[in-house]
Structures are given as C-alpha cells and as structure tokens.
Amino acid sequence: MVNDPVLRTRKPLLVELGPGILGNIFDGIQRPLKTIAIKSGDVYIPRGVSVPALDKDQLWEFQPKKLGVGDAITGGDLYATVFENTLMQHHVALPPGSMGKISYIAPAGQYSL
C-alpha cells in the first residue's frame, strides 16, 4: 500500500538464482508474473498466491568442465556450465571458502533443478 512503513529486520535479503531467471519477469518478491497469470487465470496477482521463482521441472543443458573424480577443487573454481539459451550460459562455481576433492560429477546432459 502507499505510505506503508518499511521495517528493518536486520536479516539479509534472499533471492533464488539459477537458469530460467533471465527469461522471466518477477514482482517485487521474486514471483514469476507469467506463472501467476497462468495459475490464477487473471492478470492481477491474487492474495496468497505462492509459486516458485524458478521452474523446477524444466530441463537445462549441463556441461561439466574437464575435471574428474579425485581432482582438487577450491572456492571460486568453475566446474560446469549450464546453458540458459543459445546466447547465455551460467558458469557453476564452488562457493567461496569451500574446498575438497571431487567424489562425483554428473555427465553432460539435460537436468532439472
């Protein structure tokens, strides 16, 4: 609503990142508007509607880098690529501060989230 107060929670904001985010339009709390319109059958967002930010059923092309089982990997290392479309690709990296040896890496192919 207009002029509603904004309260500080002192907690970090959270968004879900992954393939499919670039081809979507979201409202202010990362709900995909097209999915809401299809689900509700209306152009307006109904009260209480809840839909995931990313489509968990869609398949994405996964291509691992030239790493294998037993290889050492540290934070920031790129270990795979996921293709959003023919123009955009996501590089998959190990989170900062992480390290270890690869025990399994999925073969190239199509996977869902």
From TrEMBL:
Domain of life: Eukaryota
Gene Ontology CC annotations of this record: plant-type vacuole
Coiled coil segments of this chain: none
GO molecular function, one term: proton-transporting ATPase activity, rotational mechanism
Keywords attached to this entry: ATP-binding, Ion transport, Nucleotide-binding, Translocase, Transport
Ranges of residues in domain ATPsynthase alpha/beta subunit barrel-sandwich: 51-112
A Gene Ontology biological process term: ATP metabolic process
Catalytic activity: ATP + H2O + 4 H(+)(in) = ADP + phosphate + 5 H(+)(out)
Pfam families from the UniProt entry: ATP-synt_ab_Xtn
Similarity field: Belongs to the ATPase alpha/beta chains family.
Protein name listed in UniProt: ATPsynthase alpha/beta subunit barrel-sandwich domain-containing protein
Species of the source: Arundo donax (Giant reed)
Phylogenetic classification of the source organism: Eukaryota, Viridiplantae, Streptophyta, Embryophyta, Tracheophyta
